[in-house]
Every structure is written in C-alpha cells, then in structure tokens.
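The following block was generated as part of the benchmark described in Methods. Ligand: magnesium ion.
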Amino acid sequence: MTTTSSAALTDGPVYRGSSLELVGLRMAYGDVDVLRGVDIAVPAGSTTCVIGPSGSGKSTMLRGVNRLHEPQGGDVLLDGESALQLKPDVLRRRIGLVFQHFNLFPDHTALENVALALRKVKGMSKADARELAAARLAEVGLAERAGHRPRDLSGGQQQRVAIARALALEPEVMLFDEVTSALDPELVKGVLTLMATLGQRGMTMVVVTHEMGFAGKAADQVVFMDEGKVVEAGDPAQLFSDPASPRLRRFLSEVL
Ligand SMILES: Nc1ncnc2c1ncn2[C@@H]1O[C@H](COP(=O)(O)OP(=O)(O)OP(=O)(O)O)[C@@H](O)[C@H]1O
Ligand SMILES: [Mg+2]
C-alpha cells in the first residue's frame, strides 16, 4: 500500500470554489416524488456533508445539481447564477462529480485517464494534457503511480485518480457520492485526507458520506436528509451532540 505523504499535499494549489445553493429543489422518477423541496446553501470554499438513511434522496440530489437527472422544480444557483439555464456540458465542467465507482478506462494508465479528460473536455494538445495530468496526479499523491493501469492500483489510488481527473477540469464545486464506501477499510483514510485537504485549499464541496468522523471534522455544515427533505442542518459538533429532531437522533443512534 502506498500512502499519501503529507508533503505531497501541503504544497498544492489554492482553489477558488464558487457558492452553491439549492432552492426548493424537487425531483421525481416517473410519478414517484423523490425530492420534495430541498434547500441547501453551501458558501464558497466551504464543505457540506450530507448524511441520511438509504433511499432518502442524497444521490438523486447530487444528480440534480449537475443535471444527470433533470429537476422537476426549484433551482440550483452556482455562484448566484441558475444552473438550469446553463448548457449541461458547461455545467458539468464547472461542477465535478465523483462516484463510488471510479469509472476509469481500464486500458489506459492513470496519466492517460486524466489527460484524456483534458483533451476531450478542454480540447488541450496531447503534450499539454499530459503535463497538466502529471501535475494533478502529483497533487493527489500519485506522482509515482502515473504510469500504472487501474488494475495495478489499489482501490484508494484509483479513487484518487478519479478525483485528480475531476480536479483537472478546474471545477468550481466538487460533489462526492459515497466515494469511500466501496474501499477496503485501510484505504479509506487516504481518500478522506485528500478530500479534507481540498476543502482546506478552498474548494467548495458537497460530500455525501457515511463517514461520521469525517463529517464531524471536515464539514463546515452537516445536512441530514430523510424522505426527500432536509430534516436538519447545521454545525457538525452541535448537530451530532444535540440533534433537534427525533429522526436524526434515531439515525445517529444507529450509525454512531
Ligand atoms: N433511476 C431510478 N429510477 C427510479 N427510482 C429511483 C432511481 N434512482 C433512485 N430511485 C429511488 O429514489 C429514492 C432515492 O434514491 P437515492 O439513490 O437518491 O437515495 P440515497 O439517499 O442516495 O440512498 P443510498 O444511501 O442507499 O445511496 C429511492 O427510493 C430510490 O429507490
Ligand atoms: Mg446514494
């Protein structure tokens, strides 16, 4: 196992995250309402962790934010501007999404995976894309692994390649959906450390996670969702130690 050295993470870029605001966001699959008016404000450069039971609509909410599934109503404001008015491909350049499953190209090296995204999305030349890809991989602590194919990388390293690929497109906001839940326990920490570092460097992040320790430490705000609504949101220490709603109290007693 290769761990991320803290040196690799200290001298990195400073990000300029944009604010993100969900206003009365409603989403459905067919006739089934899944989000029933979700309001979440994420100030620029801050981290919001979203927690809640399975099926509460957390993934659906992230899919609505970058319009992998079109919202039924409400709005998403990116830096104050309606994301629903932007072209989806422009929006997805500005808001990066990283999933539980990394979706790397198996026949390409880590470097090529990042460089291909840069060539396709940003239209960069091969040489420029490779140079920038190498820099991005170094920032996630993978300089020495750039020439490896996904199968020769650990799950945690593959997930960090996926994060480097998203960062290479210079998003203003990063969305993470359970990015550590498919990883072996010993690989989780490296990915969580990387996400915490991105937050410290100014990225705006929405992190759906079951990692309550991470939420407690890295989040500026924790949002608890249940049945397609925000039940409670606030400061992590306060929310975890003194939940106002019985539903959050019950949820925490099950997961903590
Ligand atoms: N493609 C789909 N078609 C129909 N219903 C869906 C689809 N995706 C999700 N749903 C339903 O929408 C609801 C919310 O699902 P969602 O995946 O957003 O929950 P979640 O909070 O992310 O859960 P988990 O913690 O298990 O990932 C669930 O009832 C789910 O069954
Ligand atoms: Mg989900």
